[in-house]
Design a protein that fits this description.
This protein is mostly helical. It has helices spanning 2-33, 88-104, 131-135, 138-145, 149-158, 175-185; strands at 42-45, 48-51, 128-129, 160-161, 172-174. The relative contact order is 0.13.
Length: 186
Amino acid sequence: MKENIFPALKLTVVSLILLSGIYSLIMLGIAQLSPNKGKGFIVEADGKTYYENIAQNFTDDKYFWSRPSAVGYNAAGSAGSNKGPSNPDYLQTVQDRIDTFLVYNPNINKSEIPSDIVTASGSGLDPDISIEAAQVQAKRIAAARNISEEKIYQLINENTEKPFLGLVGTEKINVLKLNIQLDKIN
């Protein structure tokens, strides 16, 4: 028994030191080399501070809505719902989001709603939406702000982020930055 317990205890202690101590210090060191020293991307608007890399909850008609969050936009608890695509509760939640979206955007059909505007991301904190998700909201926002749809589409185009190196990822829009720009034009 001693021949099994002592090596297991040594492995446990070495793993704790490596994975809890040394690895954490290496990651902290790498974070110090990044912009803003690993504290996120801070944006200030109207005297308030926001993190552009964490989703914000926008529900007013005059703003672009973010992707739904499974954690209530609480950055302290990043998580998905862990419900599968055939789970009745999950399907009802998505249907409720679709119904709500259609109430506030009556000019579009259900088939035109992009999935990212009614489904939460894996972290529940995705700050970005697709170009399509922004475009389906343009008419509502233009009406709420009494500005032309063309101006809204221009703003969407100006704030579209291209894939990394033109290869990795898809085109997307950061909802917080887009809404801050929206407030500047009206």
